[in-house]
Write a structure and sequence with these properties.
This protein is mainly α. It has ten helices and no strands. The longest helix has 28 residues.
């Protein structure tokens, strides 16, 4: 868990400094490219999932063998072209937020993309991505409704809140994993945290 936080902070720093040197036109090209790539991956991911559920798929031996050998279908059937469902949900949520920021004229294509993205995140069963997207949309609506409040202040507040919660849970997990017997034997409070976090709390304890 610690290395994840470190790497994410590094990527945020690199990304922020790269984006500072791009004008709005270059940024739109970058965002559109990302949206297109994610959309292609998502469509192929869904196609693989339903393709391998056809009754006669075993007769298509070459296709069946190729998918099983070169994708993660065996481990993650819902997100065969991603490392895991969480990653699939997160990048889809990011691409959706990018589409909101650059597409001012929202026609049929935008709403089809929106509907598919929302369904895909649900299809991945990724609660963390669903919750993150919900929070982002709330912040977007808040920023639109109260334009006097600068977006960067909202971002700072969310980052500080996220950091505080992460540090708090980390310290709590650390304090309840000093003994070998405490690692897997969770208290009632720990069990509730683990359930809400989709078993991520246990992963943090084991780390």
């Amino acid at each position: 868990a610690v290395e994840t936080v470190v790497f994410e902070m590094f990527y945020l720093f690199v990304g922020f400094n790269m984006l500072k040197f791009l004008d709005r036109k270059d940024l739109k090209v970058l965002f559109k490219t990302f949206i297109i790539l994610v959309s292609i991956l998502n469509v192929l991911t869904v196609a693989i999932y339903f393709l391998l559920r056809l009754d006669n798929i075993c007769e298509m031996r070459e296709i069946y063998r190729f998918i099983n050998d070169y994708t993660l279908y065996k481990r993650y059937p819902y997100s065969a072209l991603y490392t895991n469902p969480n990653y699939a949900g997160i990048v889809t949520g990011i691409s959706f937020l990018m589409s909101i920021s650059i597409l001012k004229k929202r026609g049929v294509l935008f709403w089809c993309f929106t509907a598919f993205s929302m369904w895909f995140i649900y299809f991945q069963r990724c609660r963390s991505a669903q919750f993150a997207l919900f929070v982002c949309l709330l912040c977007y609506l808040f920023n639109v409704s109260f334009k006097k409040v600068k977006a960067k202040y909202i971002m700072y507040a969310i980052l500080m809140l996220s950091l505080t919660v992460s540090v708090g849970i980390s310290m709590f997990a650390y304090s309840h994993s000093q003994k070998q017997s405490d690692i897997l034997n969770m208290t009632e409070v720990e069990t509730k945290i683990n359930s809400v976090s989709s078993n991520r709390y246990l992963i943090w304890k084991l780390d």
